[in-house]
């Protein structure tokens, strides 16, 4: 089994986008849309998180996604340098 930094970063990015979708659904749960919500979103009748906490979560998630994208870019650059040195 080949586990690379890119695979782990890609999974983290997917998880981050799922969290963003969840927070966005909580920001406006009464909006009507033709697109279904992602499968892992559970809207419960319990009290929703505060607007501030949802926005902070979105900000943290954005930072996480950007960081993981940099991991993928760094690994890509390192592999490119390896091939250049090898050639």
Question: Your description of this structure?
Answer:
The structure is a single chain. The protein has 87 residues and is mainly alpha-helical. It contains two helices and no strands. It has helices at 5-27, 51-86. Helix 1 packs antiparallel against helix 2 (51-86). The two termini are 27 Å apart. The mean pLDDT is 81.
Brief digest:
The chain is mainly α and 87 residues long. The chain has helices at 5-27, 51-86.
Based on helices, strands and strand pairing, what is the structural class?
A: mainly alpha
Helix-strand sequence: HH
Helix content: 55-70%
- Mean pLDDT, to the nearest integer, reads 81
Percentage of residues in strands:
under 5%
CA radius of gyration is 18 Å
Largest beta-sheet details: none
Which features characterize this protein?
87 residues, elongated, 0% strand, mainly alpha
Provide the fold topology.
Elements: H1 5-27, H2 51-86
Helix pairs in contact: 1-2
């Amino acid at each position: 089994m080949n586990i690379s930094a890119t695979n782990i970063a890609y999974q983290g990015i997917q998880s981050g986008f799922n969290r963003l979708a969840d927070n966005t659904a909580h920001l406006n749960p009464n909006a009507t849309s033709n697109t279904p919500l992602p499968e892992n979103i559970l809207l419960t009748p319990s009290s929703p998180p505060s607007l501030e906490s949802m926005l902070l979560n979105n900000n943290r998630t954005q930072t996480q996604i950007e960081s993981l994208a940099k991991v993928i870019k760094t690994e890509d650059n390192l592999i490119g340098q390896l091939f250049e040195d090898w050639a």
